[in-house]
Write a structure and sequence with these properties.
Blueprint (H helix, E strand, L loop, with lengths): L1 H9 L6 H5 L5 H14 L10 H14 L7 E6 L2 E11 L9 E6 L18 E3 L2 E3 L7 H15 L9 E6 L10 H8 L1 H4 L3 E4 L3 E4 L5 E10 L1 E10 L3 E2 L8 H12 L10 H12 L3 H11 L4 H7 L3 H7 L2 E9 L5 E2 L2 E10 L5 H12 L5 E4 L14 H14 L5 E6 L15 E3 L4 E2 L12 E3 H19 L2
Parallel strand pairs: 3-6, 3-7, 7-17, 8-18, 9-16
Antiparallel strand pairs: 1-2, 2-6, 4-5, 5-19, 8-9, 9-17, 10-14, 10-15, 11-13, 12-14
Helix pairs in contact: 3-5, 5-15, 9-10, 10-11, 14-15
This protein binds zinc ion (ZN).
The site of zinc ion has 5 residues, from loops.
Length: 468
Amino acid sequence: MRVLAAAAASLGLLAGSAAAQAPPLRPDQVQFRAVYKELVETNTTLSAGSCTEAAQKMGARLAQAGFAASDLTYFADPAHPKDGGLVAVLKGSDPKAGAILLLGHIDVVEARREDWTRDPFVLVEENGHFFGRGTADMKGLDAIWVDSLIRLKQAPRPPRRTLKMALTCGEETDGAFNGARWLATQRPDLVAADFGLNEGGGGRLDEQGRREMLTVQVGQKAYQDYRLTVTNPGGHSSRPRPDNAIYQLADALEKVRPYVFPVKLTETTRASLAPRAARGDAVGQALSRLFADPADAEAARVAMTDADVNAILHTNCVATQLAAGHAPNALPQRATANINCRIFPGETVEETRQTLVRLVADPGVKVEATDPDKPLAAVTALDPKVIGPMRTLAAKHFPGVPLVPSISAGATDAVYLGPAKVPIYGVPGVFRDADGGGVHGLNERMQVRALYEGRDYLFELLKVYVGG
Ligand SMILES: [Zn+2]
């Protein structure tokens, strides 16, 4: 047995020391863990799962905790009966105080059992980590929202401000029924709020599992594709003509290629780039010069050599797809290219298209914005009423760990709340492994301690926000 145990330990099969020394769970943590487990073990992939079922399970827990049926709104699209969601409202005592929205997508990326080490739809706790699809993206935060609502409902006094929670589907899949979009356009009353909290922030652990930094996501760039099209009468390739759709398109792309969109520095991007500038290397020094003069083209050129920095300095457009010609022995009748742009908050789809038209400078090249998949994100401010408590409580729960605002070059469901005028913040508090924790990939995981500690931080943060 001892030999076996030693062998097992050396293979990492026994619980790690962190897990072995972990104190027993408090009763409130046991309750929370049950919510988390139920969410992770309810398959909510587009192919085989049901967000509707997960929403109903969470609704049942809220009802059991005392929520009236009238405070729980289930919604679904008749054409997508499994992509439903839930809005729960915890009414505040002060009718004049604005509401706060908790947003969470409950759908997950596909996961195939045969590719995973463990069953992706069973919550496995092993070596200080929870394993399972959605453990990190984002059923941990969903469970924290549900659990917080239950605890606040059972508190002796109601909160001063109203708290709304929207659990929605369709975030991970284009073309699915997106609950956040539906709510913002069809039932804006259900999500109307002074501000909202969502995924997108968090914290980063280093390779050794130590806390490196906390992040709060403040604003996102918009995703937009543009199609460049050249058409031509074509003909037999044995008799070339002076004009050619492929060459004409290639010339257009060559004109777009070197263009650098103007550097935009907002309060948020300055704050998010400050730690990078402080490193003091060539990119860091260039950033410091840019802070002083955003028009410094040479500083911009150096700063842009860091892809992470480049992604948030300005709008970026890059060629991503090409298609042309219909036969090897024919002159091309059509050539198209896709240019993918990530538009800086505050700039528009049409402004960016006009820039591309101006760069291409060829009326024979049609430049069209493809159907926008997502609306433009609202410009989110570094509102001290929101950020202040995050910072104060971070100093208490995670002393010495810096809290850094970030702007996302991608997009979460937060963009859908832009037209509803609800600024959304990606909350700090739940730290993720240095390698990203297998999000969207294999063997997704969440550090157990990080989840419980993040929950404690976020619950206290919510109590400060709602008051009462
Ligand atoms: Zn997510």
